[in-house]
Fold each of these.
Amino acid sequence: MNVQFRPEPSASVSVKTAIADCDIHPARATKDELYPFMAKRWHAHLETYGIQAYHGMMEGPPYPKAQPNASRRDAWPPEGGPQGSSLSFMQKQLLDPYNVALGVLNPLASGQGLRNQDFAGALCVAINDWQIEKWTSKDTRLKASIVVPTEDGAAAAAEIRRRAGDKNFVQVLLLSRNVEPLGQRRYWPIYEAAQEIGLPVGVHAFGFGGNPLTPSGWPSFYIEEMVGHAQCQQTVLASLVLEGVFERYPKLKMVMIEAGFGWAPSLGWRLDKNFERLHSEVPHLKRKPSEYIRDHVWWTTQPMEDPERREHLFQVIEWIGWDKLLFATDYPHWDFDEPSRVLPAGVSDANREAFYLGNAKKLYGIS
């Protein structure tokens, strides 16, 4: 197989100053690592019934990955365990060499999207305690995301409020595939609680909702799932806007994670165009849909659209705002973005600093 690289003469600026990595995926070293944080009832449940998500498979993700845990081949910790399960190896491979001053943890196998709601709640609480015990208390550069049993709005809101004021946490984490679009009323308690305690809500690609991975059915290839994250995130964002979530919770901040952002302007234009003719259907909206998106939504890179002409990328970013863009590596996954190769030349020093660190510190309230 021949591998061809497109010349990137402009992507050679090294990142020597501190950066924020807004999408790091920690993993459990062993199956029973969560047991100290769970009642014994759930130990037996996990061993007897396993984790049953909203999809038809017995276990695992809804589409097989080319790599275990979709991770880099060099990310296996030398002491054993899956990729992303070793703090010392993460420090050596990511935090220290890339001068990461702030790393936001986003656990994916967290208990969200399980059919047993009580078990989902117990697992999410355990994951949150585990993040403190294993990660944030051991390295102050790391901050956790509050994972919640998404389909149980009341329990999710209770867990968010339980973590209020805890400096180990900087956001609430949801996934993009759910039983219903995230603007639906069943999820409103989550947004109410997040706004109340002043944390942004991150919506990460993936998850389980019991539906096909794409709006048109089950795909044939993994690459279809990868690009489909953008389509899924568009439906999530349209639902949040049109159901009036941002009108109802005017201080709510959302972060779209790992689904790109190049599609944001076209979604805004399409929503605005239809809004002109169909406003009567959604009279609870007081402004154009694009205005809600631009005011309430932040976006992580990785994946980051890579047009051949850099001015096209700059035009997209100018639409969403340089102050709304957050750098992410997606460590330890295979599509990891190396910091020095993300931004092309032509970015001002002020925008570069905001992109790599300033925007994240401001959003997450890190001094």
Note: The longest strand covers residues 169-177.
Amino acid sequence: MAKIRRKIIEIDETLCNGCGKCVTACAEGALAIIDGKARLVSEIYCDGLGACLGECPTGALKIVEREAEEFDEQAVEEYLKRMKAELSSPFTSQLACGCPSHQLRELEPESRSSIEANIPSALSHWPVQIRLIPPSAPFLREAKLLICADCVSVAYPKLHLELLPERKIMIGCPKFDPAELYVEKFAEIFEKVPLQSVEVAIMEVPCCKGLVYILNEARKLAKKEIPFKIYTIGVKGEILREEVF
């Protein structure tokens, strides 16, 4: 297809953190998260208007003027129809929209010699699921509370060595579990239960940030200024970031 000089999106991959916010902001489906970075699916899907720019938290996106294939509205409509059909299929193996939490990836496991063997369990209470622990649970009082996304316990091999010791853990999935129920439960905990500290461990995928949203809403509802330390865990089993929220 012949190219014309026009405005089109440009992505700085060194700044992109793969959060996927630009993907959902692009009505034409021109962007996807591929290998952890936002990428342009096809030049013909980008209208160059830049609706995605304001959604990028790192400034990785900008509109430039260069030689590119012409925007094709009909091709966009056909592409979006295919995406919709793919999303509705129970046999979909990978979403075309590229939501990082759905992307299938093969990982290289570490060899046994490279990780510490005979790791003792640091778990000091039961149950551990958020929905099964009442705010009145005695082990929550004066606890160093670790609120953990389900997937972290699988992805982070040093959980029992570094994050869990001396802490009480509550685990759940912000994507599939009832958010409103969790907001109410944590609001009651924050309001009524004395805690030493609150830490949160989430995966790097965007949907996992829903757990931070839940806790922030609970904090507002409880009217308590409780700082959270947030650990973001990569799918390869390392701590990517530590932040205080």
Note: The longest strand covers residues 3-11.
